[in-house]
Amino acid sequence: MAYRELAPPPALRGLAECGWVSTPGPAPLVTDVLPDGCMDLVWTGGRLLVAGPDTAPHPARLDPGAPTVGLRFAPGMLPDLLGVPAAALRDQRVPLSDLHPRVGPSVRASRGLRASESRRGCDPAAALLDGVTDVALTLLTIAGKPPDPSTRELAARIGAGDGVEATADALGCTSRTLHRRCLTEFGYGPSVLRRVLRFRRASELLHAGVAPAEVAAVAGYADQPHLSREVRALAGVAPRQLASGANRSTPLPSGSSTTA
Questions:
Q1: CA-based angle 59:219:72, to the nearest 5?
Q2: 77 falls within a domain
Q3: How many structural domains does the chain have?
Q4: Average pLDDT, whole number, for the chain?
Q5: pLDDT value of residue 212
Q6: Which domain holds residue 62?
Q7: What's the average model confidence in pLDDT over 206-227?
Q8: 196 lies in a domain?
Q9: For 211-220, which contacts have Cβ atoms below 8 Å and span 24 or more sequence positions?
Q10: Is residue 49 part of a domain?
C-alpha cells in the first residue's frame, strides 16, 4: 500500500486539513485506522462514505484495485456541513446518501466520480479527489454557511489541556453547553476529545522519532506509564510499536479503506 497527502483544495482551506490517496498493493491488507479527532469524506471506488470520529482502532480492509481517496476535515468541521451531529457517527462508516436529506447533487457528483475512474490522460487519483471536493462544496452550499469559527478555538483549548470551565468561560457559555457542543461537533465529550487530540500529538512525536519519555512530557501526559496506557487504549500497541509503524494512523487516515 502507498499513501500520500495533498494540500487541501483552496476552496476548503480552513475546513479540510488535506486530501489523501491510498493506493492498494497486490494483495488484500487489513490494518487499523487510529483515532485522530477528524472526520473524512471517502470515495472507496463504489461508495461515498463519511468516516465518523473514532474512539478506538478501526479495522479496515484494503483490496487490490482502484485507489481510495478522501478529504480529511479538521476536528469539528464536517458535522455542520452534513447537518448531522458527530456523536451519531462515532466509530462508524456510513454512506453519505444515508445521512443527508438533500444528497441528490452529491449523488450526481459521485456518479461523476465513477466516470473519473476510467478517464484517460489524467491522474485518476487527482480526478477522484476533485470529485470528492465537488461533493464537499455541494454540502457547503447546502449548509449555507461555514462552521462556527470558534469550533477551532474550542478544539485548540481542550487539546492544550484547558479545563472545561475555563474553556466555557473563554467561549462565553456554560459547562453544560460546552459538553453538548463537543458531542455535536466532535463526537466526544471534552474529556475524550482531550484524550484523542493528545494522542494525536503523541503519535506525531513518536513517528518523528522522539523518545517516549520526552513525548509524555511534551504531549501533556502525567508520566511515561500514563502515555503507555493511553497509546495501548487508543492504538492497541505500545508506544515503541507505534513509533516503528505498527498500526500508525499517518499512512491510513480515518476512513481510508474499501470498507470505511
A1: 45
A2: yes
A3: 1
A4: 86
A5: 95
A6: 2-143
A7: 96
A8: no
A9: 212/239, 212/240, 212/243, 215/239, 220/160, 220/161
A10: yes
